[in-house]
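A favour, since you know our structure tokens better than I do. What I am after is a single protein written out in full by you. Could you add the entry underneath, on a fresh line?


***
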Amino acid sequence: MSKESLIEKLGFNASDKVIIFHIDDMGFSHASNVASFECLDFGVATCGSVIVPSPWFLETANICKKNSQYDVGVHLTLTCEYDLYRWRAISSVDPKTGLLDHEGCLWRTSEAAVENISTEAAEFEMRAQIQRAINHGIDVTHIDTHMGTVMNPKYIQSYLTLSQEFKVPAFMPRVTREQLIEIGLGEFADIYLGFLTQLENDGFPLIDQMIIDTGGEQPNKVEYYCDRLKEVKEGLTHLLFHPAKMSEELKAITPESSGWRNQDYEAFTSSELKEYIEELGFKIIGYRKIRDLIRKA
């Protein structure tokens, strides 16, 4: 007898196309907060995750505290990629931890973070970020990763340990060897694939499909997302995007990505995209539904 799939445990049919429309990088700016909550209120986006060390985290937390219906998790981060807009670790400023670069901020790249941050310091920082979100009134529904850093083999066990500790799902997609090679993790393929097999055997909630390469400007981003949605297969899909409302603040922080972040905001507050999603007949959920299933188990 075959095991019941995650979506069946959630009350759907095995043949259903269940999708999570996920907002990344909440809290990184006021522009992203304005756009994120407008997208959530519009009704296509179902959830998002906040960068706790970022300057506008408190605004995100204050809104969530006053509006408990928002489905928000923690975007665990060990990096800060911007040239002139920086944030630091919240758990320690001790150089011995390796958490901070020469400017006293988190590292600009995942490679530098992995090279310098010890496993123990990374876990301590991740735990502090989750706890800070909870302490500031966010009903944390899940954890995921900024720039993929905490899913590196060096940190992935800590990532999953924290998922169990706080009883929240962690973003963990099924991947093939080919996909790992494509995203530059080919050398770790055997580790990841073995790890995923063990997680599945243990009943860990895995994402069947991810659509995460959505950055970049498009001639028409509504049409772009409509085309990407044709890729969705049976099972559970996680589609992420990065909305932010165009402003002088946004252009100053990230001139390279301000245009496509604004396109994401406009797409996910578009009636055209919303109507197309309804036509496709997706079952749309956020992470709170998965978290509640875990906590009942």
Observations:
- The longest helix spans residues 119-135.
